[in-house]
From TrEMBL:
The keyword Hydrolase applies. This is Helicase C-terminal domain-containing protein. InterPro entries: ATP-helicase/E3_Ub-Ligase, Helicase_C-like, P-loop_NTPase, SNF2/RAD54-like_C. Keywords: Hydrolase. Residues 4-44 form the Helicase C-terminal domain. GO terms for molecular function: hydrolase activity. The keyword Hydrolase applies.
Amino acid sequence: VMLLPIQHGANGLNLIEAQHVILVEPLLNPAVEAQAINRVHRIGQRLKTLVHRFIICNTVEENIYKMSQQKTNLLPMKQKEQPLSANDM
């Protein structure tokens, strides 16, 4: 068992022997959470990576989680956009 704040656990670690990621506080930046999860879900990982989130209903954390999910849902739309041409401007 290793307990790390997400800001430290999301950077520069390869935890391929781990299988579970437990997130106890949601962040407004979904990319930081994804990076923390990807510390476990990496090349060389032989086990299924399981992500557990603890979010209590009707709390600030629930609202933060919902806002983070809205940001995540916007990402695929952004990637599908085509670059503007000179005629579009």
